[in-house]
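Weekly sync notes, structure subgroup
Attendees: PM, AL, DS (notes)

Item 1: joint prediction request from the bench team. They want all two components modeled as one assembly rather than separately. Inputs as received:
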Amino acid sequence: VAGIKSQITRAVSDAEKTHL
Amino acid sequence: GRPDDVRAILERISGAEAMPPSPAEQAVLVRYVAELRAQPRAHRTFNDRWSAWIAYRDGPNGLRARP
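Output from the run, pasted for the record:
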């Protein structure tokens, strides 16, 4: 579960880094 | 510029004992990421990248802080 949560957090921050 | 609902969900699921996001919360996150990805890629200047690298190097867990 911890892996899934960190994947979610990383996906959101990666998208923000790339597109904001 | 992170929306309040997204920030609240990410805060709630952070931490070792927090529950994973519910389907409704997942939908909010998926929609947010989809909105971001629909935008064009951010233009980053060389200066932006250089500053980010310096911050990484000198940050609390940066290369310089290692003994």
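Discussion: DSSP finds one helix and no strands in chain A.
Action: AL to compare against the crosslinking data before next sync.
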